[in-house]
Amino acid sequence: MTAMIDILAIGEPMVEFNEDRSGPEPTYRPGHGGDTSNTIIAAARQGARTAYFTHLGDDAFGQQFLDLWDKEGVSRETVKLIAGQRTGIYFVTHGSDGHEFSYYRAGSAASLVTPQDLPKGLVESAQVLHVSGISQAISVTACDMVFDAMARAKAAGRIISYDTNLRLRLWPIERARAIINASAGQSTILLPGLDDARHLTGLESADAICDFYLALGPTIVALTMGKDGTLVATKDARQHVPARIVKAIDATGAGDTFDGVFLAEWLKTRDPFASAHFANAAAALSTQAYGAVAPIPRRATVEAFMKN
Question: Quick one: CA torsion of 140, 262, 195, 162, rounded to 10 degrees?
């Protein structure tokens, strides 16, 4: 990859089966997910130049992802299909307490990636590297690979975007705290969610959490708080950005949509507060249909929504 791109994401894409309760009997709609893959598609739909790196199983699901990224304009030239390995899947169910995930990812091709698999020059080819806590939780070697990617990005003077994305089914809280806080300290733009941040920091208030994370080193902290909007903090300013109110059906990919749209908009404006306004609108729109990827809005749709 020779031309400079805007955003490179690294992680584990997963095939999604999302429960649809709109009919007389629940059915499962096939789709695509995986937090960093969702994020890079959200950024691509805003017009950003994007790329993705991972390993996939040499199976029908792996090929589906290649086709998806081609359709979305996400460069996947360094993605490999690995013979004899499989692509992870997950199911989403919906109930009175919201959505719940059931994962079948142990031993997936993405979880077996090592630092040696990361192509030379790939990280340096992007203005922004985006990774997440999930990318580190799936295995020790994947965690090492993410740290290696961040080190390469830092050495090259690139922007590092990091979503804490805590999944306690994947690792114990003590290990998660140590690794996620270390990663937050390497990041330029930190994208935590409030519930996760409370587990990771032991703090309750949004302001205290932003103070904690800014002290680790990020330049920007955008703390998403669901229906309570987003608190965006820098060392010089802080602003609460209200959520956009819609009739939500499925919030599966809302946080990932926020991440991708925020990064794409920030690259255009370098204004984290305006970027959060735009990303909040996109995240709200992404909850109005089932699935992680299908409802992610394109830029024109977000602009029209904000005008209204």
Answer: 20
CB 226 within 8 A of CB 243: yes
| DSSP helix, strand, coil percent of the chain (3-state; round to 5) | 40, 25, 35
C-alpha 52/C-alpha 272 separation (Å) is 24
**Stretch 58-66: mean pLDDT:** 95
State the CATH number of the domain containing residue 282.
Answer: 3.40.1190.20
At residue 20 the predicted structure's pLDDT band, cuts being 50, 70 and 90, is confident
Residue 3 pLDDT > 80, yes or no?
Answer: no
Note the pTM of the prediction, 2 decimals: 0.94
| Cα–Cα distance measured from residue 222 to residue 50, given in angstroms and rounded to the nearest whole number | 21
State mean pLDDT over 203-222. Answer: 98
Cα separations in angstroms, 5 against 47, 50, 158? 12, 6, 12
In contact, 187 and 160? CB cutoff 8 Å:
yes
Alpha carbons 185 and 173: distance in angstroms, whole number: 18
In which domain, by residue range, is 25 found?
5-307
Residue 203: how many other CB atoms lie within 10 Å: 15
For the chain, what is the domain count?
Answer: 1
pLDDT band at residue 42 under the 50/70/90 scheme: very high
